Amino acid sequence: MMDVRHCLTASLALCLAAVSPAPAQPAPQPTVVEDPAALARLRANEGITLQWIGWERRGHVAVTEPGGLVHLSAAQEEASGPARLTLEGDVLRIDGYSFAFRGRIVIADTPDVGRLCERDGDFTFLITQNRRYWRLQEMEMCDGLTDYVDIYF
Question: Are 77 and 57 in contact (CB under 8 A)?
């Protein structure tokens, strides 16, 4: 009888361990803001473009800040076709000329229908030559093509 109780107790412990919630993930850290004016420009951004879709009709960039972590959700779509750019993720740090972004960037059906370029990871957006936008610096990630992803201010 003792062996059966021991076996039942061990089984119950294994079952409880299997249904116990996973350890909590650490809370995301707030965005490091080295230049408040740069963050203000990002909040008031004037859209996003991918050169394959065009510069004349910019997409939209939504900026939210849950818990002090700046989150970007963006999309640009071709006016009369399937081409689409999406961007989703967090700004880890922002200064006067750049910001560090962690998330996902997807380019679909452009410049050719059927092309799919999905990128996950850490990226840098940088202002160069006094331009009025931040440009993605990791431009050549798929198919050997150069993708210019720009967020305007």
Answer: no
Question: Is the backbone peptide bond immediately before 26 cis, with ω within 30 degrees of 0?
Answer: no
Domains in the chain, number? 1
Residue 11 domain-assigned (yes or no): no
Q: Residue 153 in contact with residue 41, Cβ under 8 Å?
A: yes
The predicted-structure confidence for 83-124, as pLDDT tens digits, reads as follows 999 999 999 999 999 999 999 999 999 999 999 999 999 999
Asked if the structure places residue 104 within a domain, the reply is yes
120 Cβ neighbours under 8 A, 6+ residues apart? 103, 104
**pTM across the whole model:** 0.82
- Domain contains 5: no
Residue 79: which domain range? 30-152
Alpha-carbon span 114 to 82, nearest angstrom: 9
- E strands, 25-108, are 32-33, 48-50, 60-64, 70-77, 84-94, 98-108
In this structure, is residue 105 part of a structural domain?
yes
Q: Give the side-chain half-sphere CA count within 13 A for 142.
A: 16
Asked whether the beta carbons of 110 and 104 are under 8 A apart, the reply is no
Looking at residue 66, what is its pLDDT? 96
